[in-house]
Design a protein that fits this description.
By secondary structure, the protein is α+β, with helices and mostly antiparallel strands. Helices cover 40% and strands 15% of the residues. A 3-stranded antiparallel β-sheet has the order 1-3-2.
Length: 101
């Protein structure tokens, strides 16, 4: 037993593990991912929503993240600009987003 106590682990165990550098990128919320998926299906000619005019209430932060994500996909961004309506309400902390079919 005394032999096991005297054993020193390899040096690699003493160093912190490598981690990727921090980024300012945030992971999109589940709601943002759902909206993007709905838009992609609508753009492909499918009807993912039970009724046209589905309303999502997004926090401003999520809305900004949605816009940044959509701008990276030009066909989806153009579709969003023509088919989605939104308006900010000053007293609300959310932004209604209406997906038109």
């Amino acid at each position: 037993m005394s032999n096991l106590i005297d054993i020193t682990p390899p040096e690699s165990f003493h160093k912190a593990p490598l981690t990727p550098p921090p980024t300012d990128e945030e992971t999109p919320s589940k709601q943002v991912l759902n909206i993007i998926q709905c838009l992609e299906l609508q753009l492909a000619g499918q009807r993912p929503l039970s009724s046209p005019g589905k309303v999502f209430h997004l926090a401003h932060r999520d809305f900004n993240h949605l816009l940044k994500t959509l701008e990276l996909n030009q066909p989806l961004w153009r579709y969003f600009q023509t088919k989605v309506r939104y308006a900010a309400h000053p007293r609300s902390r959310t932004l209604p987003l209406i997906l038109c079919g």
